Amino acid sequence: MPPANYLAEQHDATNNLGFPDLAAGDVYRALLLTDEAQDESGEYHGQVLEALSEARNGGREEGQMNGACNGNGHTNGHEPASGKKKNSENGSDDESEVEGNNSAVQQIAIANALESYQKLAQNLAHCGCLRSAFDFCQRGSKAFPKASSLNDTRQAILATNRETQLQRDPSWDESSFDPKTDLPDEGSVRRELYPWNTHDPDRFSATTPKRRAPKSPPQMRRPTPLLTSSNPPQTTIQQLGLFATADIPPGDVVLTESSLLTANNRHLHPLCDACSRDLPPLTPSSHPYACPSCPDTVFCSAPCLSLPQTHYHPAICGKDIDALGKNTPAPDAVNALYLLLLFRAVALAETQATHPLDLRETKYLWGDFVHPDRGYLHSASAAAEPLSVARHLPFSFRFNVLAPLHVLEKMDVDVFAPTALPRYDG
Question: What does the pLDDT look like over 370-415, one tens digit per residue?
């Protein structure tokens, strides 16, 4: 199956389950591939055309892209479709057939592009990212000026915003409103464990405290019921953490934990790249700790220089991503810091060849996720009314779709490869 079609089908699956945020990410990648099909200078142009051509002609090799598969960058080992057949006996007949095939493939790509613009705008609107949704309607209308469906979606976005504004302020005046800049773009999505997530551990098992705090004092490790004011006391409250079961003298160190999952959003600030502590002052006798391959990346000590080499730094060494997410405007500071933490988690996962949710730093984090209502997931309401369930997780197209894809590409991760999908989707 061509990757654009695969992503479109995955979009339909996540959308039908009521996850417009995941569907938006899938269909955006599909849109990128349709751009590649129409851009002869695109990095994936030949691969996309070949994959679409083989699928159209019913070939057994479906041409899914994976740039790491072979020297040509194709899964089947063939050169990209070039528009001409070699060693042709019939000459012009074969050339006409190839031209006709390429024309048909381009028409498929164009149809997929229109559908992708429409689906992307609808899903972003469902997430509450109205400005990004409106922008993709504008882009789509520029590419497809006769597409009435994009205009209908654009009008629905404006109507949704108008209704919201009038509910907040009945005197709201639309005359000075500019949708390109004034539409809201900070949305929210469902904060829940995806049904296909097999990485989340049982945080309340008897082995979890032993695994997470093997060196903690015994008085800090034993499960303890929480004190409540209810009478009779509730017996169903569960919490995971360190609870003091004996008096701790003032000044005693309760917990010391180091983590490589750190970030700071101050560009060119003298902080350790590994632990984010302040760097020691430089003196004539001091020894700076910097990566030999990218000396702008500095550390505070020998251990902080050594540990990243086996845990995260090779994935980003020399990749020029230091400035991403740093020195951002104040309104974006929280999103930017989250993005930097995401970058570090991806670098940890790439270097250690593991799933980001299986990292030591992330596996036992508590994100206040809820288990989904399986009945709702498989009901017609999931796709038809994605806003009918509580949504507490902030979401934006820029920080949750665009920037993560950009960083993965900076890390030389093929975001269209089938092998990348299970690791980073959901």
Answer: 666 555 444 444 444 555 677 888 999 999 999 999 988 888 888 8
pLDDT at 412: 87
Round to whole Å and give the CA distance between 189 and 127: 6
Task: Compute CA distances 28 → 11, 250, 338, whole Å.
Answer: 9, 55, 21
**Count of CB atoms within 10 A of residue 158's CB?**
17
Distance from chain centroid for Cα 100? 38
Closest by CA position to 56, among listed 13, 101, 97: 101
- Residue 11 exposed, middle or buried by CB count within 10 Å (0-12, 13-18, 19+): buried
Residues 164, 299: Cα–Cα separation, whole Å: 49
- Give me the pLDDT at residue 228, please: 55
Supply 5's token pair. 């079609």
Q: Is the pTM of this model over 0.90?
A: no
| 274/32 Cα distance (integer angstroms) | 34
Q: Where are the alpha helices (H) located in 128-213, listed in sequence order?
A: 130-143, 148-168, 179-182, 207-212
* Residue boundaries of the structural domains of the chain: 1-57+102-193+391-425, 258-368
User: pLDDT band at residue 416, thresholds of 50, 70 and 90?
Assistant: confident
